[in-house]
Amino acid sequence: MFELTKDHEDFRRVVRDFAESKIAPHVEEWDAQAHFPSELVPQMGELGLFGLVVPEEYGGAGLDEGGFTYLCLAIEELGRVDQSMGITLSAGVGLGINPILTYGTDAQKQRFLPDLVSGKALAGFGLTEPDAGSDAGATRTRATLADGQWTINGAKAFITNSGTDITSVVTVTARTGEQDGKPQISAIMVPSGTPGFTVEPAYRKLGWHISDTHGLTFANCQVPEENLLGEQGQGYRQFLKTLDDGRIAISALAVGLAQACLDLSADYAKTRMAFGRPIGANQGVSFKVADLAVMVEASRLLTYKAAWLKDEHDAGRRSVAEVKHAAAIAKLYSTESAVTATRLATQIFGGNGFMEEYPVARFFRDAKILEIGEGTSEVQRMLIARQYGLVS
């Protein structure tokens, strides 16, 4: 079924070594300074992390099958050390590369993918707006076509990888008309530096301090007609599929966070002394560690199953509905478990858990967004309930 192979485990160790040697020694400083280490992105590209789902002709790994599972393993291992670098990879592939790979023309792929796969560049995906998040049909950004040019006006919010010094393009969703009385949504690629495209100052965020996140504005921003990604009016369908895949990736990020909480808590419980013995000798602490272990194991299995189903679907052996259902379940359980895991870990660490020099404090801040991004927990419950005919 979805059992990991020796190649999977060997790959995991490579990514873990990279995370522990290149990220862990600097993460506290980067987090405190809200510094995005763009120099790490090409190194991640050299490891092949951005090309795991990409054919060789565009610089990718060219894996016949199983590329998405490898990607989830990489996200998990980066997220175990730092959630920000985990989401950089997750968004870089799932929201940056995948829409172009899935819906782009060969010319569009040849233009953008080689640099994105190598880590020389990053791409963003502009879906969320100040007044349109889960209700993506409420998109207000508009694009009109005249004389071979799209003119885009509107704003996007909370866009990852959109303002780095190596960001090359952002794909944005926009209204391009109406169809059957409903907004017609299309996806259009906007290269960085295009006149009228403004990257707003970085947000001051609760967590994910190292990750690059900006609002975007478009004021009579013009791009060529051929920058349309896929067919006009198909943007809504395109981003729904993109979000399905992204939910599995976020689940992997949550697994990495929960695993870190388990590892840190178990070690601390064995070394922290109180009343003449390790605090882990007390059931109040040891039972919390046991609960963490259960959440990690269940979250990981749900995530790996969803990733396996995604790979099976890509190979023509599973349906979209199966992937969508598994992705929603994995995303819901693993992200809510991750938030709980940080609360338990902080409690085990006591006062030290409230101090920034201990990683559990950073993980506590980073966790909450997992229940929001790529579809809130409420949206996941709605999607799951629909499978049983319970939500219209």
TrEMBL record:
<keyword id="KW-0285">Flavoprotein</keyword>
<dbReference type="InterPro" id="IPR013786">
    <property type="entry name" value="AcylCoA_DH/ox_N"/>
</dbReference>
<dbReference type="Pfam" id="PF00441">
    <property type="entry name" value="Acyl-CoA_dh_1"/>
</dbReference>
<dbReference type="InterPro" id="IPR006089">
    <property type="entry name" value="Acyl-CoA_DH_CS"/>
</dbReference>
<dbReference type="Pfam" id="PF02771">
    <property type="entry name" value="Acyl-CoA_dh_N"/>
</dbReference>
<dbReference type="InterPro" id="IPR046373">
    <property type="entry name" value="Acyl-CoA_Oxase/DH_mid-dom_sf"/>
</dbReference>
<dbReference type="InterPro" id="IPR036250">
    <property type="entry name" value="AcylCo_DH-like_C"/>
</dbReference>
<protein>
    <submittedName>
        <fullName>Acyl-CoA dehydrogenase</fullName>
    </submittedName>
</protein>
<dbReference type="Pfam" id="PF02770">
    <property type="entry name" value="Acyl-CoA_dh_M"/>
</dbReference>
<dbReference type="InterPro" id="IPR006091">
    <property type="entry name" value="Acyl-CoA_Oxase/DH_mid-dom"/>
</dbReference>
<feature type="domain" description="Acyl-CoA dehydrogenase/oxidase C-terminal">
    <location>
        <begin position="233"/>
        <end position="387"/>
    </location>
</feature>
<dbReference type="GO" id="GO:0050660">
    <property type="term" value="F:flavin adenine dinucleotide binding"/>
</dbReference>
<feature type="domain" description="Acyl-CoA oxidase/dehydrogenase middle">
    <location>
        <begin position="125"/>
        <end position="221"/>
    </location>
</feature>
<feature type="domain" description="Acyl-CoA dehydrogenase/oxidase N-terminal">
    <location>
        <begin position="5"/>
        <end position="120"/>
    </location>
</feature>
<keyword id="KW-0274">FAD</keyword>
<dbReference type="InterPro" id="IPR009100">
    <property type="entry name" value="AcylCoA_DH/oxidase_NM_dom_sf"/>
</dbReference>
<dbReference type="GO" id="GO:0003995">
    <property type="term" value="F:acyl-CoA dehydrogenase activity"/>
</dbReference>
<comment type="similarity">
    <text>Belongs to the acyl-CoA dehydrogenase family.</text>
</comment>
<keyword id="KW-0560">Oxidoreductase</keyword>
<dbReference type="InterPro" id="IPR009075">
    <property type="entry name" value="AcylCo_DH/oxidase_C"/>
</dbReference>
<dbReference type="InterPro" id="IPR037069">
    <property type="entry name" value="AcylCoA_DH/ox_N_sf"/>
</dbReference>
